[in-house]
Amino acid sequence: PNAWYSVQNDGIHLIPTCSDPVTSKVWVDGDHRQAAMLCLNDCLIANCGTMPCTTALPALWQGEHVVTAWSSSDSESGDSNSGPSEDGTCAACGRGEDRIAELRFVVEAHPPSGQSDFFSRADVLHTWQDEDGEELFRQIREQEDAEYRARHRIDPREMGQGTACAGRSVCGVWLDPLDDSQCADLCTSTTFLPTSIHNLQTQELKEATEELRRRLFQRQFPPAQPPLLSLRSPASPTSGFGVTMVYAAHNLAKAFATNTLYAPARDTMTLWTSQRYCGEERHLGCYFEAVTNVSVQLVDADRRPLSLPSEREQDVAGIDGIMHDFGLQDFTHLGSFWLQAMALDFIWKPNRRSRAYIKHLQAQRPLRHPAIAMHVRRGDSHLAGRWMPTLDTYLQAAETMRAKYGVSTIFLATDDTDTARQCQALTIFNCSSLPIGRELYDVGASEAPEHNPQESAYDKWVETRIQHGEVDASEAAMHAIAEIDTLGHCDFFVGRLDSAISRMVLMLMFARQGPRPFISLDKPWAQPPFGIIN
After folding, report:
1. Distance CA 430, CA 424 (A)
2. What residues contact 35, with CB distance under 8 A and at least 6 apart?
3. Are 233 and 307 in contact (CB under 8 A)?
4. Which of 113, 168, 375, 484 is deepest in the core (most CB within 10 A)?
C-alpha cells in the first residue's frame, strides 16, 4: 500500500507513493525509514538507501516469481546489490521487518543469452465498443459454433482400454493399479474405492499434467499480440458460485482446445462480487490471480458495460449449449474430466488477499491428514425440491472409507449451522470445519424434510438475497473459496456430485494429487445421460 514497483526488461524499479522530495525517504505507517530491502523469491538482491531505487534482475527461469520490498531502518546507507552466492545460497530477507510492497510476475520462457525475458501480469487492455451489443453477440455465436465444429471429439473407445470400464463414455477412467477389475468411469460411476490410496497417479498422467500446465501458461500469457480471444461470461448472471466457477473452467478448457485465448471480460462476475470488497474488479480477478495478461472490456455506445450471454443459454454448441465431448488431440485418451480439472486448477490461484483470508481461517482449524473432505449442501437447497440427506447418510459413506482405509478425520464444508455442530460433536470421527458465519444461509433448511417434493419460490435463494442486499456477495464468495480450497487438500471425498461445489472439490483434489477415493451419494461427476458437465 505504501509503494509500487514495476518489473521491466532492465530491472526492478521501486518508487514510494509518499516520499519526502528533498531527502527521498520512504514513509511507512507515518515513520521515516531511509532504506528498503528488495528480495526476489525470499533472496536479498539489493539494499536501497535512496528512493527511487532501481536494481538489475538476474536471469530468471520460466514460471512465477515473487518480489518483495521491506522497510529496513538499519540497512547500510547507500545502495548495494546482493543475490545468490556461487553455491546457490542467499542472504535471508525481510524476516521480522515491515513489508511495504509485493509483486508477483511470470516468466514466459528461459532467458536467452543470460538476459531476463519476462513480462508482468499487468493488463493489456482491449476495449470492444458495440452500439447495442447485437453485433458483438452475433460474432460470439458464430465463434461458438465454429469452435463446436472444430472441436477434437473424444472417442469413448479410447477410454480405459483393457479394463472393466473400457469404452463407456468420454469423461475418463480411474484405475486401481493393484486390481484391474476396480475402476471408475467418471461419467457413470458414483464411487471409486481402490485397494490402496498410493500410486494412483501414473507417470504418464504426471507428465501429461505438467505438459498441459506449460501449454496453458504459454497460451494465456502471450508475449506479444494475443491470438483470437474467446469471450465468455463465466455462467448465467444468476448462477450459484460453484456453477460460475465450473463454467469458467469449462470456457478456459474450450478456448485452449480450439486455439483461442480465454479472456474473461470485466464486469462478468457482478453477482458474486461486491463494490465494497472488489471495487471495479467485478470479475475473477477480485479473488484469484490473473488467468491471462490480456484484459477485455466490453461496452455499449455510452461506455456502459455489456453483459455477455452465457454459453448454456445458447443453442448452437453441444447438448444444452455445452461442449461436453471435447479434448486435446494428444491427450484425448485421458478424457474430458482431466482437461476440465486442470483448467479449474489453472484458474484456482487465490490472490494475496484471498490467501491471507484462507490461511487465517485454516490456522484456527488445522487440517490433519489423512482426512475425508465432506460437503453437505443444505442451506437454500431444499427450495429446489431436491433430496437433502441428513448428516447420518454422509457418515455411512465415511464409515465405509474408515473401514477400508482407516481414516478417522473429517473436514466438513456446509452451509448449515446445525450440520456443522452435529459433526463437531461426533466421537466416532474427528470432525472440524472452518469458523465461518453459517447463520447467513439459514433459510429454514433444518426444518425442511429430507425429501422435499415441491420446488418453492426462489425469493430466499442466496443469489436472490444478494441481489436484494440481504447478503454481501463477497462475504458469501469468500466463505465458499475458503471451504473449497481446504477440501481440495484432503485425501478422500464424500458428497453429492449433483452439487457444483462438490464437483469442484473432486476436480481440485485430482489436479493436486491425482485420482482420489470418492463416494457420491447421488450422481457421477458428469450428469447423465450424455456426460454434461453441469
Report:
1. 7
2. 26, 47, 48, 49, 71, 72, 73, 74, 75, 76, 77
3. yes
4. 375
CA 264 to chain centroid: 14
Distance CA 381, CA 452 (A): 10
Compute the distance between CA of residue 56 and CA of residue 54 in angstroms, rounded to an integer.
7
Confidence of residue 110 (pLDDT cuts 50, 70, 90): very low
The helix/strand count (H/E) of the chain reads as: 11, 22
Q: Could you give the 3-state DSSP secondary structure of residue 297? A: strand
Three-state DSSP string of 79-123: CEECCCCCCCCCCCCCCCCEEEEEEEEEECCCCHHHCCCCECCCC
Q: What is the pLDDT of residues 335-348, one digit of tens each?
A: 889 999 999 999 99
Q: Report the C-alpha gap between 148 and 468 in whole angstroms.
A: 37
Other CB atoms within a 10 A radius of the CB of residue 345 amount to 20
Distance between CA atoms of 263 and 268, rounded to whole angstroms?
A: 11
- The single residue listed with the C-alpha cell 487465517 is 360
Residue 427 burial (CB < 10 Å; 0-12/13-18/19+)? exposed
Condensed to tens digits (0 to 9), the pLDDT of residues 173-203 reads 999 988 878 889 888 899 999 999 988 988 9
Name the helix (H) or strand (E) containing 341. Answer: helix 335-347
Q: Which of 312, 304, 272, 275 is nearest to 288 (CA)?
A: 272
Strands (E), 166-279: 173-176, 179-185, 191-192, 229-230, 261-262
Closest CA to 268 of 257, 281, 255: 281
The pair phi, psi for residue 31, each rounded to 5°, is -105, 130
Confidence check: pLDDT of 13 > 70: no
Q: What is the DSSP letter of 63?
A: E
* pTM reported for the whole predicted model: 0.74
Q: In the beta sheet, which residues pair with residue 81?
A: 46
Query: What interhelical angle do 500-513 and 241-257 show, nearest 10?
Result: 50
Q: What is the DSSP string of 351-418?
A: -HHHHHHHHHHHHHS---SS-EEEEE--TTGGGGT-B---HHHHHHHHHHHHHHH---EEEEEES-HH
CA separation for the pair 1, 15 (Å, rounded): 12
Q: Which residue has the cell 460474432?
A: 139
Residue listed under C-alpha cell 526488461: 9
The residues with which 27 forms a beta bridge, in sequence order, are 32
Query: What is the total residue count of the chain?
Result: 534
